[in-house]
Amino acid sequence: MSEVSLRLVGVTKTYNAGTPAAVDVLRGVDVSLNTGEVVALVAPSGAGKSTLLHIAGLLDTPDAGTVEIAGADMTGGADRKRTTVRRDEVGFVYQFHHLLPEFSAQENIVLPQLAAGVSRRVADARARELLDIVGIVPRAHHRPAALSGGEQQRVAFCRALANQPSVLLADEPTGNLDPATSDTVFDALMTLVRETGLSALIATHNMELASRMDRQLRMDQGVLTPA
Ligand code: ADP
Fold first, then answer.
1. Shortest CA distance to 173 belongs to which of 192, 194, 150, 196?
2. Domain definitions of the chain by residue range
């Protein structure tokens, strides 16, 4: 495994370029996550966090700059290569869980593994292992609608890690939960990240949660600075 899981250098992004409505959202973002490092991305709404996370996760492309994931430079990579690296190396978590409603918690974690070619037996074992880390094995066979908001989000974390990515990108992962639930669910996320040894870039408004991570970066005027 590479020492650096995620590296962005000089990343820029402008929406509506060349029109009066142009917005320079990213003006030269540099960030590097070492293997196992958990970094908070703190910024007000509209500052460009989602844009940055989408570019880092290969869901969008920068206008300039480079994105490197698990040692591979993804700049100008063919779509097929980007899709493969995104599937194998990047886990995403959003504010809303986006679980498939007609499948159980365990099945939601198994399905992405089957899509990646893992056997059912191995995928089931991996799902149980992840559910165990976040403390909800007894809820494994419930559908999302039968789970609390905090439990749904824990399942979404497990699903994001199902294919053993190198990097976890999270956009306000506890933003939909009440403060007490947010606190314990965030603890579950940190345990999961620590036990699996992956790197994470986690956007949050919550300074208390940010302070529990290894490092805090603030996004301001389209660049990242230490908070
Ligand atoms: P955050 O996640 O920090 O709230 P975003 O990355 O979603 O911020 O958006 C940053 C800025 O870019 C906002 O001003 C937003 O309106 C603008 N923006 C985001 N996506 C688009 C788009 N597809 N087209 C035009 N403007 C956009």
1. 150
2. 4-226
For the CA of 52, the closest atom of ligand 1 is 6
pLDDT of residue 80: 86
31 Cα–ligand 1 center, Å: 20
**Alpha carbon nearest to ligand 1 atom 22, residue:** 15
> Mean pLDDT of successive 10-residue segments in the chain (227 residues)?
85 93 95 95 92 96 94 83 90 94 98 95 98 96 97 96 96 91 92 92 93 95 93
CATH number for the 4-226 domain, one of 3.10.350.10, 3.40.50.300, 3.30.460.10, 3.40.50.2300?
A: 3.40.50.300
Q: Give me the half-sphere count of Cα atoms (radius 13 Å) on the Cβ side of residue 113.
A: 24
The alpha carbon of 53 and the centre of ligand 1 are apart by a number of angstroms equal to 12
Taking only Cα atoms into account, the Rg of the chain, rounded to an integer number of angstroms, comes to 17
Interval between CA 109 and ligand 1 midpoint (Å): 30
pLDDT score of 76: 75
Bridge partners, residue 217, by sequence? 41, 226
Instruction: Extract the tokens encoding 34.
Output: 């070492």
Ligand 1 lining (C-beta closer than 6 Å): 15-16, 23, 25, 43, 45-51
Name the residue at shortest CA distance from atom 16 of ligand 1. Answer: 46
